[in-house]
Amino acid sequence: MKNIIYLAVACVMLFTTGCGDEFLDTENLYGKSLDTYYSTPTDMEEAIAGVYNAIYTPNVHSNESMAANLLSDMMLGGGGPDDKSAKWVDNFEDPLEDTYRDLWSQSYNGIARANAIIEKTAEADFSTFFASAEEAQEFKNQQIGEALFMRAFFYFRLVKFLGGVPLITAIDDPKDGPRNTITETYAQIASDLKLAIETMPSTPFPEIPTSSYGHANKWVAQAYLGRVYLYYTGYMTNMEGQSTDVLPLADGGSLSASDVAGYLSDCINNSGHELVSDFRNLWPYSYVNISAGDTTVLPWAHENNLSWVGQDGHSPTFGTGNYETMFVQRFSFGDWGWNNGNIYTNRLALFTGVRDNSMVPFGQGWGWCPINPNLWNSWDAEDPRKEGSILELGNAAQGAGGYEADKGDHETGFFNKKYIAIQHRENGGDVKGMFIQLYNWGNTDMQLMHAQDFIFMRFADVLLMHSEITGTADGMNRVRARAGLDPVAYSLDALKQERLYELAFEGLRWFDLVRWGDVESAFNYTLDVRNSGIDAKYSPNYRSEIKGLMPFPETEVRLSNGVYEQNPGW
User: Fold this and answer.
1) Model pTM greater than 0.90?
2) Which of 140, 208, 255, 539 could be bridged to 247 by S-S, CB 3.0 to 4.6 A?
3) Residue 11 burial (C-beta neighbours within 10 Å; 0-12, 13-18, 19+)
4) What distance in Å separates the CA atoms of residue 22 and residue 17, rounded to the nearest whole number?
5) What is the percentage of the chain residues whose pLDDT exceeds 90?
């Protein structure tokens, strides 16, 4: 279980300093302080785990993958009559005044922890713990580099959803400063990523130990620099009307398209990452027949000889290893007696499971985010990613022959297949979650069975970003070739289509629409749906005045006494 979840270390939590008063006064229960910590490899393991832990958000709407998928044009609100918040978010209404406050609070928790590592580790001497000075320095560089990356990660998460935010980059920085501009925020993100790249070792993926799976490294930072460049230049050009093709740096410099393409080229050529042979082998459904020991559980997977590459790095546990996945959010199981409830289970898989339908191999969920049928209808049936991404309900070959309709709202007959409950009978007995069986977990509650990684970055996206930044087709066509599709000439329209089909339901589509300036035209449609057995019409209501940003947490606006202003349109 060690690799299933980032460690949640209580003593690291005590160092937290955020932008609300509740983070400022904490008692050091374990006798550790900034003066004595960060001095051993064990300290560093605990400290960096505390940074990663801040990815998790108690409120499901603050979960980046859930929020971004609900906002996209590929998914509807769904759920049941009581799931009003999902429908409100999907319709660009604010369910509560603090819908995204956990995203705010947890991001600043992570930033504070990263700041402490960056400052205090620079002073540390790890030489007595390693065989050579070179090994000690490499260890130190990796820790600082990971902290730099994660600080950039959290600021990027904030700016994508909320716009410019206060920049706190040192332990003693004031916590009550005004919001920085979008450009200033991106400049800090870019500078942190650039320094992380320059700091962390150039260890290729096959040589990175499996114990480091899920952690950031130089290649992940390079990939994110590409994503940050595309989002900043696109957003400023198409949403703010300030055309730019450079990414600013905090020191006043900038990175050009050529600079960023160079980082991506280095990642492509030297990281050791590669595309897996079959797109469908990235997702756990490709393993369910093997896990169940029964080829009839999912006939489609058996007919296509699918075999999951797994999610434990390059461990041989599941076939040849997963060389494509680069950066993930790790998940575990849980128990209702735990203070954190089910926060560490993959709630995207739970909430987007089929409502009130417990089939084998696709289990029950809350029915959020049914798939827009326009996506299914526009997708070429010859593309294996279509059935590899979308579950067609009622299709027995797809394991959904037992589907019972009219259990939820916004029913379209389609759900996502990448992140969904996977289950089968255990040794011919009771039906249990596949991950519960794989990791021999005791609590079989359907709400706690989801230990599937959420993939933030994979190598296919690096190839697509390189094509988009350079205006060349090579990376895009490598992705198409993996799907058995013929090469095409580069155009932005072709690139947009490829991203739509390759990266569907991975939390990127909403941000792509915003940065391309396509967000208004993407929601100009009406659908026929079923709301708990009643025919209905569905039409999204995107509002141009919000400029692709979500509401700033109202509590933070009030606590700031006028320092923070609410985002336009909210």
Assistant:
1) yes
2) 255
3) middle
4) 9
5) 85
